[in-house]
Amino acid sequence: MSRGSGGGYDRHITIFSPEGRLFQVEYAFKAVKAAGITSIGVRGKDSVCVVTQKKVPDKLLDQTSVTHLFPITKYLGLLATGMTADARTLVQQARNEAAEFRFRYGYEMPVDVLAKWIADKSQIYTQHAYMRPLGVVAMVLGIDEEFGPRLYKCDPAGHFFGHKATSAGSKEQEAINFLEKKMKNDPAFSYDETVQTAISALQSVLQEDFKANEIEVGVVRNDNPVFRVLSTEEIDEHLTAISERD
Amino acid sequence: MGDSQYSFSLTTFSPSGKLVQIEHALTAVGSGQTSLGIKASNGVVIATEKKLPSILVDESSVQKIQCLTPNIGVVYSGMGPDFRVLVRKSRKQAEQYHRLYKEPIPVTQLVRETAAVMQEFTQSGGVRPFGVSLLVAGYDDNGPQLYQVDPSGSYFSWKASAMGKNVSNAKTFLEKRYTDDMELDDAVHTAILTLKEGFEGQISGKNIEIGIIDSDKKFRVLTPAEIDDYLAEVE
Question: Which superkingdom, per the lineage (chain B) (predicted)?
Fold first, then answer.
């Protein structure tokens, strides 16, 4: 007589279920979707752009303190989709790690090294019972010295891939379908096209037109590799360009 | 580790004497992408499917076949994140051996130490077994070798083996095709044909990965162009 599902704990801590699944990791993915925000990242020929919704639930909240875009170093940005508290822990540790890397090795931490570090940390949480997986999907962006613009996505399972374009959050699958159609023929987007593809993807998937203060946009460019959050004026320019184009 | 609260093992015996967590780990391996390895008379080849979740993923950022030392390579079926942990630990063990004995680690020793790590995670407190099976390919003074390591930590030397979704068809195919005096080129062709058997969609240099080691004792991963050349030969 076999014990079946290991005493029923396979849903509470990260041990295997009889089908070989990790329920806690799957539930972490659901937590990312439950946050109600969708984010999109697009990599162009010489720039990377990430866009996310900015939902301020209470008018009394200080809008400037509500953000999902975090600079990790001057050149690396991180867009965290999901549980904000988990995101802040991750960002804090990532900042520490990137600073130590710079001190230890004498050069800036590359994008893929940071993404790998985040993913390896997430893997530990999927294997050790004492910590739960974080309910965050992290998109890391930066300009790599060798490979140019890079966009990586790290998830609660510890997977990380480089992406030409990707999405995370509640409308992740619809956004990915939209982006697959746009990127099917491997286009080489200019900076403006990159930003506008990302913003219009978000608008199309959520079926609403945004005002400049309802979204956050972060970019890195070859000619200015510093991670920058766009101001509302710049976002407005892109929104106008999109509506004139349509 | 901050898991003093979990100083009891999560992998415990069932009344019938089975370690169910290990069996579940094997199920996780069995639902992973197919991978295989073939030992030839003058080298070893390992190969795997590389199916990515979307065309938006940059396939050049993903490498499933990794090298542990200049003359030992490894491929997996199962959970990618767990594989990365084992690669990191194995590389460190190989370096520590080299530091102590001033010579490259023999394949059997590296496999044994990696397997010991995997066994630890089936017995230690507060951790689950690794959800990967590894195929380790190496060439040292004992010639070409191929080992398979399972989540339980048990390992065997194989002439040819397969793991993952299509394991039974692949193994039957390999049993028919394998000969003891096979050369490395034939082995690569056989590996490609075996992968093709269970492959959904159009096989190409971009959705499979192949790693080889021949008598020059240098493990390397083939470029997509080289794989396409082999595919053309197979047609």
Answer: Eukaryota
